[in-house]
Amino acid sequence: MLILGIESSCDETAASVVENCREIKSSVIYTQIEEHKRYGGVVPEIASRRHCENILGVVKNALDGAGVTLKDLDGIAVTYAPGLIGALLVGVSFAKGLAMSAEKPLIPVHHIAGHIATNYLTYPQLEPPYLCLVASGGHSHIIEVLDYTKFHVVGRTHDDAAGECFDKCARAMGFPYPGGAYIDRASSLGDSSAFALPHPNVSGSEFDFSFSGLKTSVINLIHNSQQKGKQLNYNDLSASIQKTISEILTEKTIKAAEFLGYKKIALAGGVSANSGVRSALSTACTEKGFEFYMPHKNLCGDNGAMIACQGSYNLINGITADESLNAIATLSMNDI
After folding, report:
1. Domains in the chain, number
2. How does pLDDT run across 197-243, given as a tens digit for each residue?
3. Pairing label, strands 2-7, 75-81
4. Spatial CA neighbour of 43 closest among 10, 89, 7
5. DSSP secondary structure string, 247-281?
6. I want to staple 161 with a disulfide (CB 3.0 to 4.6 A). Which of 62, 106, 140, 336 is the partner?
7. Radius of gyration for the alpha carbons in the chain, expressed in angstroms and rounded
8. Are residues 286 and 228 in the same domain?
9. In a shared domain, residues 207 and 243
10. Same domain, 284 and 304
11. The pLDDT of residue 45 is above 90
12. Cβ-count burial of 332 within 10 angstroms (0-12 exposed, 13-18 middle, 19+ buried)?
């Protein structure tokens, strides 16, 4: 089975061909990071325009790289939710036209389900059920993966996501966008015990996250020091931020696993590339005797392979769409 996956939910235009659910035949990603860096974050209008300019070439290169044609495909998968609505519409519209002209099934894929699927591309032996922590710039979720196409959200963020917290703290320190990678780099040179930062909790929601208070605490710390004419050690602060976010994500995921009886835990999303998060959750799972899975670093960010992989399982389970498929900016995993 050959599936073409198309991803355009944010600032990466990506396409990939995956064979038999788990073998990547090609993966092409056009990133807009350098363009958005000057603004300190993604500008939705610019992102949508660049998707329009690049999607045809990216898809063609993915097909050529896999050595296949549209006729060889068994289906065309596309991210339809959630994400920047204009960016999503580019991918969805392109995929609908391509599927109709090629007379191939159109397969809708939820972006978070795609991130979860990166672990199937990394571990051929991994099968549901298991618990997955999905952490990225826009999402922080603890999800029960009941089957390849069945999910249940156990915990979620009530405000900022973990990746958003990383980026906003980094911006306050003057690091370029995307700031998470710069904090990761700086943290290796700092003392993670230098600053005592808060571990916010959500009252009545044991497995939910809240990173807004942590972000505000860091920003206030920086502003107060600037007003006093003092210079903080940003390596130490970066290490403390990374340690705190890693601890919050790890503690809640382990608690959820123990409460629900899972002994198999996976990590996914853009923040899964962070060395502190990877190390903290891996260490905790080892101590508890849990199996632990995390994607290759080159699969942590948005890519077409994750959409093609999840699209393969969607097709197997009869999840397809017609020309009425629309993009959706916000859609819970519990609603797909």
Report:
1. 2
2. 999 888 888 999 999 999 999 999 999 999 999 999 999 999 999 99
3. parallel
4. 10
5. HHHHHHHHHHHHHHT--EEEEESGGGG-HHHHHHH
6. 140
7. 20
8. yes
9. yes
10. no
11. yes
12. middle
Whether 278 and 173 map to the same domain: the answer is yes
The set of residues, in sequence order, having a beta carbon less than 8 Å from that of 41 and lying 6+ positions away, is: 167, 171, 177
We report the CATH number of the domain holding residue 191 as 3.30.420.40
Q: What are phi and psi of 75, to 5 degrees?
A: 180, 165
What is the 3-state composition of the chain as percent helix, strand, coil, each rounded to the nearest 5? 50, 20, 30
- Does residue 121 form part of some domain? no
Q: What is the dihedral of CA 162, 166, 172, 173, to 10 degrees?
A: 160
Tokens of 249: 């994500």
Range of the domain at 41: 2-116+299-335
Whether residue 122 is contained in a domain is answered as: no
Classify residue 70 by burial, with Cβ atoms within 10 Å: 0-12, 13-18, 19+. middle
In whole angstroms, give the CA distance from residue 196 to residue 199. 10
Question: What are the residues whose beta carbons fall under 8 Å from the beta carbon of 167, sequence distance 6 or more?
Answer: 41, 137, 177, 178, 179, 180
Strand partners, 7: 14
Instruction: Tell me the pLDDT tens digit for each residue of 271-284.
Output: 999 999 999 999 99
Tokens of 171: 């911006």
